[in-house]
Fold each of these.
Amino acid sequence: MSRPRILVTTPIPEPGPSLLAAAADVTVLEASPSYPELVALCASGTYDVVLTQLRDRIDAGLLAQATVRGVSNFAVGYNNIDVAAATERGIMVGNTPGVLTDATADIAMLLILGTARRVVEADRMVREGRFHGWEPELMLGTDVSGRTLGLAGFGRIARATAKRALGFGMDVLFAPRPPGDRMVEDSELGEFAGKVRKVEWDDLVASSDFLSLHVPLTEDTRHLVDAGVLARMKPSAILVNTARGPVVDEVALVDALRSGRIAGAGLDVYEEEPRLAPRLAELPNTVLLPHIGSATVSVRAEMSRLSALNAIAMARGRVPDHAVNPTAWS
Ligand code: DGY
């Protein structure tokens, strides 16, 4: 039997490359392909499966021409892939859930603390030689203990963030699936029953000192945080986004930060990555990270393993363990 052929669009860390090489003929591109290059590669008839990154746009146009039977995304999120179009074309999609929950929640907590305590400004002051010794009113920030953290969404990463925030003495509220609303039974709260409180999205917006976003990017959540929402937040509030950039209207956010309508923002993701909205980088009341929620050595290794195993399963004609659209081949 001939070995399956797998295309990897960007080099990934071990153990993925070794697992793939043992099971298939593998082509690894040196750097992310342009969209036309990716379309041509996926339509070339050369590959059974493509292992993609968030930067690879797998849209309906590409899928209409694709000859691959599977797309294995090196990420838990898959908003770069038109899953409905893939399903329609009988193309299976895989992702890497579970393994990056704690690392991403750590970054959410880091952004909460970093914005509250002005860590970027403080670091810059020291490096630029502007620290002249302890002063009673130097770099005063905001407490986190006793403050309200509002979680937009209550999935894995939101829950891991709640756990951390409770440890820091914060009051935790959540809206389960904004912008809509749904009932959540106490039994669904598990270890959080009695410790966190469900509120409606509008209440969450109005009552949070820190509003942290944990929703997938869908047509419903695009610009979930827009000028209207920013206007309803407390003027002292801080927005934290470790989810997806387009969940926030970034131009409206810059406006709100510049005019003092909200106090600060901690961002790991951007609306048009890697580009930032004009003037965002100039704002002192922000902590800006380069989409590193899952960036630890062990987490990226796990993502590599899961995405490789998904790709191998699909190349062998088996539904992978982490299929986003498991019925695609039926
Ligand atoms: C994901 O996996 O969706 C993250 O955004 C990148 O690790």
Amino acid sequence: MDFSIKAFDAKNSIAAAKTGCVAVGVFENKKLSQAAKSLDVNGDITAALKSGDITGKAGTTLLLRGLKGVAAERVLLVGLGSDDAVTEKSFSSGVQAAIKALSTINSADAIIALPMAEVKERDLSWAIRTVVQAGREAVYRSDAQKSKKDPAYAGVKKLALAVPNNAQAKLALAQAVAIANGMQLTKDLGNLSPNVCTPSYLADTAKKLGKDFKFSVEVLDRKQLEALKMGSFLSVTNGSEQPPKFIVLKHMGGKAKDAPVVLVGKGITFDTGGISLKPGAGMDEMKYDMCGAGSVLGTFRAIGELDLKLNVVGIVAACENMPSGRATKPGDIVTSMSGLTIEVLNTDAEGRLILCDALTYAERFNPAAVIDVATLTGACIVALGHHNSGLFTRDDDKHNALAQELLNAGKAASDTAWRLPIGELYNEQLKSNFADLANIGTPGGASCTAAAFLENFTRKYTWAHVDIAGTAWKSGGAKGATGRPVPMLTNFLIGRAG
Ligand code: BES
Ligand code: MN
Ligand code: ZN
């Protein structure tokens, strides 16, 4: 789908715009939005509302054809709920409904003339992102591995947004498209089967991104990881035939001396649980256990396209977690790159074992902040469901500020997170009789003890952890990766770039 900006004024009116369709908002009390009024030359829109064919409830639509005095072939009325406030929710459902209607009409182009600058507590940039994301979601297909492709999107392909053609709107649109492109990469990687999307495939994807967007990309293999003494990461790969890959991407858009933001992604391309084998039902979904890694690559796709003026380092720790005669056993003790020894009481708590070494590796960049992203714990789904990612930081002024920055970035990008605690009491749950710490906690607060485990390896810099177990993909009939938290991360980095 192609997006553009089309500004209208008195001389250049919406009514005179030649297009297949104009979508305008109407309200529950039969009131018309500004754009709807300008198309109501003959009273047809007022009549349609009076007839009750459209209630104006948020998410309702009515398609009218051949309105007198309107150059567009069709007018799509879009319900936006109550007229005293267009809320985030009513606007979003209006946009969803409009995109759905535009996907079924036989027209190449259309104009969205919804009240994008009038959404309560949300700015124009948010509204533009909402339209672009909904449009891109409608055309998205996950049929890369089907020999018979799904029916392609057959609706409006060129969508103009009726907003002022100023620098703010142009930038917002460019950012929205870059985020959508990043999300698409993240979704594609997540949805690919795990026999295709291996650690090597992630490494190749990173190299290709590097070529396309001028990132420097380095891929460390087993030998180099051994030399770095990443005993914890390597212990997870023991049972796998697929070689591990440790991928480092650099986007140096800032000043050479500026401390970078480091993003670290969990890239378990399949999580069987290892010797602590997972139950069979639904195990296929553990192909999504690389979505943290996928979102780091997707975020790089976005900041590369935007050529963000910021230094960003991406670290992807990628391997499989498999059972075998060589696999790590419960009770094995491994030595992490930091020197801390870890008793692996459950081989299914493997994410933290690869991340701890990646987090130690991150020290060498003298980072301004490190953010790790991981499908880390099933317990995070119990705690927060599928709406919010879990956000963890230490509890001091510097970290509370970072947490707030991430929460705000997520909220503004409709990709929200919710803060959960770590701290000394959770750390005590990780005590081991035989090693410095155990890789699982005593019962209770499994997301918090997982985050607390990671915290041990992040004391040399400012750090946040994002648990995306509940937000990275959808299960059931609409099974598929969501592309989250690319919007939150990209928006955070946009904010940091200033
Ligand atoms: N990748 C899983 C977490 C997960 C499970 C994410 C289900 C989304 C859906 C992770 O490696 C894992 O297995 N975690 C264990 C930790 C436990 C052994 C302490 C879990 O959550 O059960
Ligand atoms: Mn696991
Ligand atoms: Zn896992």
Amino acid sequence: MRGAIVTGGSRGIGRAIALELGRLGYGVLVNYVSQPDAANEVAAHLKEAGGMAVSVRGDVASARDRAMLIRTAVEKFGRLDLLVNNAGITSPGRKDLLEATEENWDLVFNTNLKGPFFLSQLAAREMVRQVREGTIPSGKIINVSSISGYAVSATRADYCMTKAAMGMMTRLFAQRLADEKIAVFEICPGVIESDMTAPVKAKYDKLIAEGLYPIRRWGRPEDVAKAVAAIVLDYFPFSTGQRFDVDGGFHIRSL
Ligand code: NAP
């Protein structure tokens, strides 16, 4: 059975991705950091449907935890075909740019950028080894970035910058890993209903109704999971480093 790691697979977008991968026949390591019950529920659901799954606590910002996640996935599934870097946090307190703190910077950068970068490095080393020894035919890494990587929010500067850097990170790994049969993609979600956006629901209800973007509804975690499915089903065999916008058309500029 192909093996996948989904960071932050306990809730929201990561949960939908984990469930979709289970439907596609992947064994899934459902990573979480603070909500074991949510992660256990996802893993139980996957197992009830006949799949393999394990929920694993691990902070992506911790080097020790990152190594443990890769080791656990390989022990459990015998192979690692896919890493989805989904875990992420918004800027605590959403402070104005002029009040932004180094403490928040470190937390957001460690979780949203340093974690995915070094987890990708570990996953890539493992995938290279497995491709060369014939355990897996190819590997994939999918990074969940955000429209905040190019749309400015002055109350979430650190968050925006981590997501902008994730685009470059995607292209760096894509270029480096193409010869190793590992493809790397960025999925760029727009406004998606989840615990992360729950505190700003009223604000976005209004903006969406007023036409913030062409498709006037909230995005759903399943919208993002479907993009992951299209990639892992190999419908983009001649692509790598690609950004897929899952944003209701938010990226379209208009006059
Ligand atoms: P969410 O509902 O807040 O869920 C966040 C997930 O990440 C949870 O599973 C959480 O685990 C996990 N997590 C947080 N910090 C972690 C850490 N240090 N190590 C491991 N796991 C950690 O968020 P979401 O809305 O689904 O967002 C998922 C991703 O999509 C994020 O990268 C976010 O930036 C991106 N995104 C979201 C939106 C949106 O509108 N929602 C838009 C664009 C991009 P616990 O359950 O254990 O806390």
Amino acid sequence: MSQIMAVAQLGEAILGIRASEIQIHELESNWLQHLTASMQATMLERNGVGIAAPQVYVSKRVIIVASRPNVRYPDAPEMQPIIMMNPVITTCSEQTILGEEGCLSVPDTRGQVARAEKITVQYLNLQGQPVEIRLEGFPARIVQHEVDHLDGILFTERL
Ligand code: K2U
Ligand code: ZN
């Protein structure tokens, strides 16, 4: 049963610290399943295209990436939400692209942020298996925005 969680707002300490890695023994645990289900419910409730655990007051390296077409990115791909544990961006294209971003933790603020156009990201899935994928465009932007959250960085610091 997943519930909608409160979302930490700009200025709250949890958004400014580095989140801790998920330990192997935590994978496939009940609380992690509940956390990710509740993160997803909260993200959808707030019309987000991504969310990071620190935003729901859990300082752990867990993110959800869920690109879908929206008013700012009408040609964004519709993708199944990807749950990533301990994500690491292993390659970044030299080319960056400016794009509009917002944040569930920074209400009523939008800004142009330069992000790498293409990235490779390695992570553990909920089954604890290592996965490596290449992303570009809006999904790549979302991953970079969410991994920033895990490192205590908000998009407003990149404007
Ligand atoms: O992490 C969050 O606060 C969720 C953001 C994710 C995001 C990442 C990159 C670019 C834009 C947003 C929310 O989805 S904010 C709502 C939103 C959705 C689409 C485009 C812009 C803002
Ligand atoms: Zn954000």
